Sequence to fold (440 residues):
Amino acid sequence: MTEPHTPAPQPEDASPSAETPTPSVAPADPPPPVPTGALPDWPAFRRSPVWQTPVAANPFDASDKVEPPAVREPIAPPVAPPAAPMPPAPVVPSPAQPPAPTSPPMAPPPAAPPTPAATTPPNPSPELRRSLGALRTEVGKAVVGQDAAVTGLVIALLCRGHVLLEGVPGVAKTLLVRTLAAALDLGTKRIQFTPDLMPGDVTGSLVYDARTAQFSFREGPVFTNLLLADEINRTPPKTQASLLEAMEERQVSVDGKARPLPDPFIVIATQNPVEYEGTYPLPEAQLDRFLLKLTLPIPQRDQEIEVLARHAAGFDPRDLAAAGVRPVAGARDLARARAEVGQVQIARDVMGYAVDVCRATRTSPSLSLGVSPRGATALLATSRAWAWLSGRAFVTPDDIKALAHPTLRHRVQLRAEAELEGVTAESVLDTVLATVPVPR
Fold:
């Protein structure tokens, strides 16, 4: 244990009348001042050099004047003078690590680019609209009374979609496709689908060449711009499925190699709605890949009289040039028109209206299968194309209504009990369009 420290007795002060001369030189070893109070019981603190070092007399306080000593106050413990700041040591670079190079002054950051102002969509080109509108006139030189079908085919070309034509025999389905190809200066080929048709007869196949002793690929009729699949429901599903890759991927894979199809490429398939003997109905997966389903009705009385008058005047449906059909547009015009259709704006509430129409078919009690999300995107595409053909750069709810029937009629499937009651897909779509609220 540390013994308690007893303070030394205080020295008596000199008489105030005594005069003590102040020496010019301080005593060599004056005794250290002793505090009056008791020190804390810290052995380390008592042994501190600050506490034990005697304080030297200040030479600048020497004076010949003798003054009476002042009454001493209790002396506080001396405080160590602040240490003089050490000069910073010079930074010596290590020989193993070279000094870092001084980086050049940083350039001020570039000014932020100005925020672009909201741009309005460009208006449809009148020249392109006139050239595509002239298609109706050119096709009308050979086909009478099918203006709606011509417009639907033009919309399909603008959307790069495929078309299913449905009509009784003799309403100029094949003639319509051939005349449209001649007016657009596009290639066209026709395939008559029969029960014995093989997939290789559509896509092409490898043929052995005896002269070179090698197999070479021979392209099928699918390698064209407008492919007419006549009576597509008369061939087995195996052959029908050979068009799935061509319609969706726009290519044909033979012997492990994908071969792209020309652009534009659309399939225009025909089927007879009244004769089902010996037919193979298209599966829903293939029907959903057709953008539009167009129905070709029987012409009106005056239109049918016009057909007879042309034939009486010498019209030959196999010689379109003699009928005066000439190209009024081409593949380049279609590409430019597709680029403009892609810039047609559609508001979010109009998108919601299209989605609500499609979703309403999924809850209809008359349908066992409603419109898929692919059908909703198809309705969006056809509505934009129709708005562009109408000279507008935006889509309205009326555009959705105008294209709902041809875009959605083949994507729904009726229940058996609804068919027995005489319900049709057209009547279901009419009910949906009448009940879904239209955005204002």
Confidence is low (pLDDT under 50) at residues 1-6, 8-28, 34-76, 91-97.
